[in-house]
Amino acid sequence: MRRDINVMAEIAFIYPLIALWVGACLLLLFARPLRRSTRPGVSAAPAGVALLASLAFLVRQGNDALNVIAFGGSIAGDPLTASICTILLLCGIMAVALAPTYLAARGYDNPEYYVLLLTSLSGAMLMSMARDLVVVFLGIELLSFGLYIMTGFVREDARGGEASLKYFLLGAFASALMLYGIVLVYGSSGSTNIEALRSAVIKESVQSAMFAGGLALVVIGLAFKAAVAPFHQWSPDAYEGAPLPVTAFMSVVAKIAAFAVLIRLADTLAPLYATWLPAVRLLAVLSMVAGNVIAVAQQNIKRMLAYSGVAHAGYLMVAVAALGASHAKGAALDTQTLAMSGAVFYLLAYAIMTMGAFAVLTYISGSGAECQTLADLKGLARRRPATAYGMAALMLSLGGVPPPIGFMGKLQIFWAAVAGREMALAVTLALVSVVAAYYYLRVVLTMCFEEAGAEPVRAGAPRAAGWVAAISATAVLVLGVMPGLLMGLIGMVR
Amino acid sequence: MQGNSIGFWILAALCVLAAVQVVANRNPVRSALALVGVMCCLSVFYFAQGAEFVGAVQLIVYAGAIMVLFLFVIMLLNLGAPTPMMDRVGLSKPVALLASSALLGCLAFAGALKMAPGRAVKAPLPGTVQEIGYALFDPGRPWLFAFELTSVLLLVGVVGAVVLAQRRSD
To answer: What residues contact residue A176 under an 8 Å CB cut-off, 6+ apart?
Structure first.
């Protein structure tokens, strides 16, 4: 009997996931009537309800979910998991709000879109819960399958199809590498459980090249998902070809989920720092430099945001390196906390500002063609002052210009790097931030000071996307000035 | 030992050769057949490792899966012969209803009786179905959850294939 109760408690831990899956199944079950209905947002509403239910379960679990180990140790809850899952669900809600009008204008506001979105999000949440590499892999696949298909969801759009195929082929290749890595790790250590790997590492029973190689392949698979250079090749094409709401969802959710695992690996397998710390440093520098430098040359905002996403992944890698370094150099527990909470803070900041920027683009695109290039934004401040100021706040935030939240996020990672005595990384971070400020400010200047062509305000501006944009722009400003408001969420980490 | 490793290397070479053919051959049917060859080699590996059940399943499932792959290609290319046939079979709906309610009944019955999977009473023979079953369905071990997760993954795969294959609704 006691065993039954135990199983129920373990199942209660995954209620947030079950809410998403049940929502997806109900959407599939009622797909036909939903398809026939012409009312906008009729499929998005149930998906939103599922996301809110999931969030409610997560909030209701509260502290109970902070030290659960479920299903034979394959998943577990801790503060990192809880905060990442909360951020992911908020992103999911924003992504659902962006979709209906955009897709309806193209004749694709189908329930299947939301099914894929919900399952994809559940995969991302699973990655943050996973304590076993097999579950990490399944989470990645669950996340990616949805993304591949959503990228090509508007089938008349040839670029969408091309992006989808490229993303799928490269993604499958990265998944295969990762799976091979997991096999090597298992072959050399006899386990795929991350905690078990940690104790094997501490006992020094697995310092073999096979283990290190396996771990490297696992990190490559995650770096691919997070678009860390040099594994970022897919991201500009996928971002550009995908429908705007999908680009928003993919850029944020995949990165957060992959970094949740990377942070966990860096934290748990810290005793192995000597093996992987140089590699993490290299990835961080490559991403920061390549992302920011190539972004300068972009005229297409989606591509610019893709390369800036690579750069942001680089900043996050600095936090991961700082986390490892603080273990390595035997720094105080404070330093580790600083690195970890800095990374989570930055993930949240990145989520809000990126979602907001894509929401602005969705909003001003209306029911017409996508606004993608800098030229589309010319004179926006005159046509739509409020929207332009919102976009300006988001761009400043992404560029790390004070006062919005992006600056606070970068500052935290900078501090973490200094505290972890990763001076080279800290200096690189500061230097590339200047480059980043340049190309984000260019967007602001284009909106404010360049004369528009004869382009009128587009019809059918989606109201929900406008709200998402407005809320994110307000959030980056308010939270930038008062980051203490977030500490309730972030302070839970550790 | 020596014979074993010679066998392994011969088979491994065959396997890699077939795998290269899967990618390199220009004829899609030939590459699919080469894939069958890869699967057969893999299953021999499993047999050699003493995992008879996995080896047999590898053969059966992948032969089946390959057939599904062929069907998917036909479906995606819209060669579309099966559609009129599907419409004529009026029985499919009641049969589907009956089958799904029977499954629901079984599950409800199992749930009512709390037929939860238990632990192995005695150690099953290695490599047998029993051992795999206990490993896979024991709630105390990590594989049950991963196993159930794959069902969500398969569902997404099916939904995705339908989404990509269907025509625009309006």
So the answer is: none
